[in-house]
Amino acid sequence: MPRGSLSNVLDASSKQENLVNKKPVTSLLRPIYSRMQSRSLVAGRVIVWPEATSAENATHQQRLHPSNACLAGTKRAGGDSGRITLDLTTNASSLVYSLYPGHPVVLTATNLTGRSLTAFEFYQPNVLPLFETTNGTSYSNVPDLHVAVACGPFTTTTSHDISPLLALLKDIKEYRPHVLILLGPLVDSSHPLIEEYRDSTYEELYQSRLNTVAEWCHLLKTSVVIVSSWREICGNPVYPTPPPFGSGKPYWTQKNPELATWYENVTFVWDPCTLRIGPFVMGLSSPDVLFQMSSEEINANCTGDRLARLCRHVLTAANFYPIHPPAESLPLDYPLWQDHAHFPSNRSPHCLVLPSRLRAFIKSVENVVCVNPGLITRPGSTAAGSYARLIFSIKDSSADLQESAMDVVSWAGDEKTATDSTKSGVTILGEVVQL
Length: 435
What we know:
Layout: H1 7-17, E1 36-48, H2 55-58, E2 69-73, E3 83-87, E4 97-99, E5 104-111, E6 116-122, E7 145-151, H3 163-175, E8 179-183, H4 202-220, E9 223-227, H5 257-262, E10 266-269, E11 273-277, E12 280-284, H6 289-296, E13 298-300, H7 306-317, H8 334-340, E14 351-353, E15 361-365, E16 368-372, E17 386-394, H9 398-404, E18 409-410, E19 416-420, E20 426-434
Parallel strand pairs: 3-6, 7-8, 8-9, 9-10, 12-14, 14-16
Antiparallel strand pairs: 1-2, 1-5, 2-3, 4-13, 5-6, 7-17, 11-12, 15-16, 17-20, 18-19, 19-20
């Protein structure tokens, strides 16, 4: 199991308990195996109780269910950090929860026999504060920043034709954003026809598509950010995924001055990454964490928007991929996950981009604008997909911020939204565009 921090949920629990003695909340945690007749504070991670009886069955990942949920304890509470069954049914009529595999939680529970925790209340952790817009630099009178965000694959599943990619670039020509961010593979290693491709080498195919993007955006004077993908045919098949050329430019540009100029404003970054553009900070990650979370989440007595709730899980975990175990198709590397998947500096980005096959949306979740731009091509479909347009603006006067503070404004289908944070001074207006 990954070694993630429980500090967020522990801090939230301390505030909600309103502890007069102000002791560290970890000193109030009880070991999960302790016999507790009165409600006590326990912490750990939600996991699935193993039910497989054979090696063959053990290879299939079991789904979380109220009947097989258990809690893996934390050594910070003292005692054994093993696991114990979690009873979610005794108080089913009043218990409010939304849980996923690997979810770090703090809850009040009883344990009459020492063998099962009966849950009474799950505490809601706080979202980390936003990044400061100054970062040691004065950003007075900063012009609006226009950003386009698109996620591949950039061809349909029935051919290697790049018409969807060209349709995106033609739309970029009309919109003229300052920055174009591309996530997902340019040449998808899981494409159904990739093994039948014979027109060139995979590397030449990758170079051709990347050159197309670089040349097009160079002529438009649009900066490009390429987020690495573990599904890239010429990339590193691991998540988190390092940039394909390290911190440099593609090697094939070294002896070609014209090609080199195309890549002057092209930046290659990790997947996931936290990207600062002037005063604005964006979080980017390409795995479909929202779809997996929606498939494996269990909940009871919850209200409100489900997609916003899933985004909040990512924000409160302060991790781009908090699910454990990961999806079977995702080659997760835990040492890299520990180094690159957590939000840096214990801060939340102003905008969090989580591409998914779920319905595209732009939502404000506790002052963080969460974006699912959709996919340029939908799985199993020849129809064109979508991408997101975002406009970032900033105000440098606290008085102006108080006067201009606005609530979340939504248009039809949540395709457009605007949000303003009086703490960060960042306003983001966005829309999801169908190609």
